[in-house]
Amino acid sequence: MSTPRTVTVTTTDQGPVIVPEPSWCAGHADQPVDALAVTLGPDAVRELAADYETAAAQLRRLADWVHILKAGEVQ
Predict the structure, then answer these.
(1) Whole domain around residue 14: which residue ranges?
(2) pLDDT tens digits for 17-72?
(3) d(Cα 64, Cα 38) in Å, to the nearest integer?
(4) Is 39 part of any domain?
C-alpha cells in the first residue's frame, strides 16, 4: 500500500499547511500552483478566478441552450 500523497498550501497567517491531496489534484505534481500565485500576485489570481467563474457560467448557459435545441430535434 502506498503512502497517501499530500499537498502543501502556503497561507499568509499559518505558513505552510499540509493537507491530503484531493482526488481532482492527483497527477499534477509537475504543475506548481504557487508559482502562478507568486507570478501573478494575489489580486491578479483573484481576477483570474473571477474570469474562470464567468467562463464557467457562460458554458453552463451554452449547455442549457444545447439541451433545449436538442430537445426540439425530430427523432
Answers:
(1) 6-71
(2) 888 877 766 665 566 666 566 566 778 778 888 888 999 999 999 999 999 988 88
(3) 37
(4) yes
